[in-house]
Amino acid sequence: MYKTYTPTYKATAGADQVISTGKSILHAIIIGADVASSVIEVSDSATDGDGNVKIYLAGSTLMTSTGGAIKVGALFPNGITVDTTNQTHVTYIWEPIA
Fold it and tell me: Which of 17-21, 30-34, 48-52, 76-80 is the least confident region?
């Protein structure tokens, strides 16, 4: 039996992009494009992308330098919200925890 995860795609950069509003595991971040001066902040929050930051990625070649995917496997007890500066075409692979 296969385990099912939830993909959430964000085409544009922006603040307070909610991925999950409850306890979750973030399994991976897939970066679909190299973008100059990009930043991805992933916070343990159901609403605030720059509060309680757990993951911070920055650079102009995030897709190339990471191979396009970053394995995470981290627990976010309060939810997952991201702030992205300039970075477009990002998919977050996550799983809700009951």
Answer: 48-52
Region 40-45: mean pLDDT is 96
pLDDT at 1 over 80: no
DSSP per-residue string spanning the chain: -PPP-EEEEE-S-EEEEEEESSSEEEEEEEE-S--TTEEEEEEE-SS-TTSSEEEEEEES-HHHHHTTEEEEEEEETT-EEEEEES--SEEEEEEE--
The identity of residue 71, as a single letter, is K
Phi, psi for 65 (deg, rounded to 5): -70, -25
Q: Which CATH number fits domain 6-96: 3.40.50, 1.10.1760, 2.60.120, 3.40.1000?
A: 2.60.120
pLDDT at 72: 97
Where in the chain are the domains?
A: 6-96
Residue 18 near residue 50 (C-beta atoms within 8 A): no
